[in-house]
Amino acid sequence: MKIPVFVSCPTTLSEPQQASRQLILERLDGLDLEPRAIGISDFATQSPLREVAVLARHCSGGVILGFEQFRVQQGIRKYGTSKQKEVTELIILPTEWNQLEAGILLSAGLPLLVFKEPGLAGGIFDYGVSDVFLYEMPMSMSSDADKRLLSSVFLKWQAEVRQHYYDH
Fold first, then answer.
1. All domains of the chain, ordered by start, with CATH?
2. What is the mean pLDDT of residues 6-11?
């Protein structure tokens, strides 16, 4: 029997993003972990946010996949406040669901593994905002060093997932 883990990931991805997602799902499968997500493995009968909370209670870990979903090249940050600032550099944003689901998983006390594409920031993707380590999204696994690093990240996290599963 596989241990269920919640996977937060946008449903619409580019081809390179799909390849990264597939790489991570294969790692989960290799560790006998079952990825669960609303709209993929589980379907909502109530509001999606409530279903996320219900599903999280049946999981022993979480994976947040921070993929670019929105680009802002110009705008105003904190509009109408004394800290208003014009934005002229590229800002890359994830799906808002990554933030909501990360909060639910953290509040449930589940071990989290957070991956983010380069340049992605804000909320769970900011360094130091939580005790969760952030990892760059594995885009290509050409070198043996990259493979070893990804394996060690997954092995450490899955040990915490298994401990949660058997303790609860």
1. 3-67+95-167 (3.40.50.450)
2. 96
Place of tokens 């560790």: 31
Give the per-residue pLDDT at 144. Answer: 77
CA distance 157 to 168: 17
pTM: 0.91
Q: Which residue has the tokens 């002229």?
A: 88
Angle ∠(90,37,161) on CA atoms, nearest 5? 95
Sign of CA dihedral 122, 125, 127, 130: positive
- Spell out the SS3 assignment of the chain: CCEEEEEECCCCCCHHHHHHHHHHHHHHHHCCEEEECECCCECCCCCHHHHHHHHHHCCCCEEEEECCCEEECCEEECCCCCCCEEECCCEEECCHHHHHHHHHHHHCCCCEEEEECCCECCHHHCCCCCCCCEEECCCCCCCHHHHHHHHHHHHHHHHHHHHHHHHC
Average pLDDT over residues 96-111: 96
Asked whether the beta carbons of 54 and 154 are under 8 A apart, the reply is no
